[in-house]
Queue: 2 jobs
Job 1
Amino acid sequence: MSLAALRETIDLLTTRPLLWLPGLACGLLAALIWIVFYVSGAFFAGRLLFFFLLVAIFFVAATYVSIRDEKPTVADMARGAKDYYFRLLTPTLVIAFGIVLVFVLVILTLAMFGTQPDYGILTFLTFGIVLPTVMLTYFYDCAVVLEERKVFESLQRSMEIVTANLFSILLFYISCFIIFCVTGFAFFVAWTAALADRLEPITHYNDTQLAAFTIDQLVPLIGYEGFIVTAVCIFAAVAILVPLLLTYKACYFKIVAGTTVPIQQMIGEYDSKGRWYKY
């Protein structure tokens, strides 16, 4: 399934240029976050990152609409993204609220017994709560746009697909991780090669200096030239990864959803003779 979806992804990206528009927009926003960080620091960049996450949902919806429709135009993508924006935002907030609520309840429970959360506990919560939740609900956005599901129906549909195709889903997750790592590493190599002279002093750092090295020290080290190169690399990496991963996800969802029958909940009751009556 993963290979078939990847082949369809490549075909769509080569035959539908409009699929690259959301990636270009997200790339510009990601580069803007880096520019704000470079100019104003982490405080304003963090606020802009939150805004970027909200805007990204619009481009996610636009991508899925472009994949779903046969011959979409820019106007169709924009109209569809506007129609599906809040339908995607709502389950996103439900998932985020659920994760935060569990974190808070666990931390409060530990505090009642006099235990302070440490790195080990937070790591356990991350891999024990966040990771399974994200994996189970990963396809909710596809269910909303491609199958016209409502908020909780989309979450349920995602869980149905993941649990019914667990091995195939794990292969898909691994494929996405490999694509992300290969693309990211390629741009990291290009960034390092372009700034080799400015990064050369880092090669002389000892283990203590490397352990204490932060991004705040990196910014003045790379200078203005490094600032421009970093912005370009961030833009290009995001512009490629966003349409590639979203299209791959939608294509895989269409394949796997066709083999997963939704669970129908029957509402009714039995009479005194054991006969079933549906409401």
Job 2
Amino acid sequence: MLYRIKLIHVLQLILGVVLYVAAIWSLNKPFDHDEIEVVHTAWKILQGERIYVDFFQHHHPLLYFLLVPLLVVFKEKITVLVAIRIVFFCLFLLILFVSYQISVKLFDKISGYISSILLPTTFIFTTNVIEIRPDVPQTLFGLISIIFLLIYFEYKSSKYLVFSSLSLGIAFLFLQKAIFLVLLLFLILLYKLYKNEIHFRSIFVYLFTFLLVCLPYLGYLISSHSLSEYIIFNWALNINFLSRSSPISTLILSYKANTLFWFYYVLGTLFFTKSFNQQTIRFLSLGLLISIFILRKAHQQYFMLVIPLAAVISGYSLHALHATSKRILLVVLLLAIALPCYSLVGGALEMSNSSQLQKINYVLSITKPDDYVYDGNTSFNVFRKDLDFFWFSVDQGDALTTYAKMTGYEYSIYELIDQFKPKVISNYFIPNMLDQRIAEHYRQSSQYKDLFIRTALP
């Protein structure tokens, strides 16, 4: 008992330090383009614009609608970005807590703490989970769905089955990538049915509850006449993206930064997942990992739901192999987190988002609420109107060019600037800044070389 208490205290201390560093990252990390996209989407909804109909978006909408009240409270102030970051850090802590509970339920408390240390020190996880993106709440509710299903398998109480399906439906409303988790969980249930360990009624309850959660959203799409647009932009366009990116480079990056994490995960999947619930986590982690290779574009955040499950297995594997020696266990654990911690601490000491916030504030200070702004790269326009349906993802191979190839959609940034006469434009993806519709009416900002301010009257 003395060994266990002392070890837990050491692990708690390590975890506390790691979370402190993660909190600094959350407050100081420069805002990713995706984060500006999320907040600006919520702002557009607040202005009465209809998602998929009046402006482009290719993700499920629940997060954007949930952020609207925060925009109402903070109004058009840049502090709302920091406030939302704090909310998302709290979501990260909840993800950590649910992952810990899964680990304790499947293995033991020591393994739970080890996995809770490995998770936030997995570089590709922490650098993305503290950001404002729908992957974060999708991951949280996906994990909640998983733990409730594990509890259902243990106690056979239908209420846990319903809770699991409710959480799964919410995860899907946050992000359509949850469809892979949906399919995997239904495969597990079908296997249980095949083994006569559950009744068909359980499958029906699970499916009915999931559909019940999604039904209000379907009703909204139909009533707003945006169902076809939803299908095009959330599914058809994402499937047909012209540009591709492989997850292999991200896996290599993660392996280099967290070599021992992945080493113990592989050992765990091979030798330390014995019970059905343990094998369920192994199946889900491998299935979700494989699903990333199906997607045309695989960004780092796509691994967000995989990493917590992998951490559960990796944490127990590390503990099981070194349980006889507390000293060796701690040394191996410290070696496992040394390199990512070095990178995380270095980033925490050096990074700042103050200049980015100043740039956003600068654009607000020289524009009026009714002014148009061309950003193009979702880096500074948070609270001003856009020129076109496609207000981001206008690069070659991204959403605009993909949609144009699919439908013949016409887009000319020069004609849009001439038509709407935006107060501020960036030079992002404007090949010819000497075009007369720009050169005769815009001067370069003295503070930001990539920004140009309209000077002539319309």
